Amino acid sequence: MIKLLPEHYHALLTQAYNDLFRNAQWGKEWKTARTICLNKSENPAPTTDQLRPISMLPTFSKIYERLFLTRFNSWTTRMNILPAQQSGARSHQATTSRVNCLLEQVTQSLRYNSFTPVVYIDFLQAFDKLWQQGLLLKLYRLNCPASYLVWIAHYFSDRTLKIDYGGVESALVNVERGAPQGSCLGPVMYVIARHDIPQCFEHPTQVHAYVDDIALVYIPSIHLKFSSKAVEIEERINNDMTELLNYADKWHQPLNPNKTEISSRRKAIASQYD
Q: What's the pTM value of the predicted model, to 2 decimals?
């Protein structure tokens, strides 16, 4: 619809956005999300954990985000902020990019080892639990330009949402934490907030991340016997999980123990009866 506007309207919009950027301002209405809840279950009266919330933001708000994101991504790329282990929320990479890296590392390990464990980590309500003050602190430590810091601080402040369930709308609810659902900037802010997570682990190069999904590959030492390898891997996993719990506690990002699991990949052994 915006593309159908007369050309002189485009100039007005450009001027309006430039003025907003200059003053790091946001329209109050642009910070209100309309959230609809879809029932994921067969239950006609679903519980809250059986609902899938989908948030919708005003179109002009999302355009404003994308304009800022172009500038912000230029800075993160120039300063090499995002770790190589993270394939989410960055151009020219997708889920398959990270999956291929993970499979390649596991395959390489199985050439020399009979087993290779992989730990899959899940954070509890990752986007909704994002600690905004912690994110701003990390951006400050990364020497983020002051104008960007002010803009992001305004972006997170005074956000509200209203829930629409079956056509019935709730009163406005203040949103004091988390990355705004349905936003363009939310995934990028989350990835920035977790840019340092590979350093929690003994072997950062064996960490694979796609936004909030993390997999840790544990490659045994090839010179050890099987029993010694198992003991070594168990000790490494326990140490890494302790460091991860400390990280999660420090940055107010709880883990989801019900979805954090370990899977061991084994080398196929040919049957002697073939």
A: 0.87
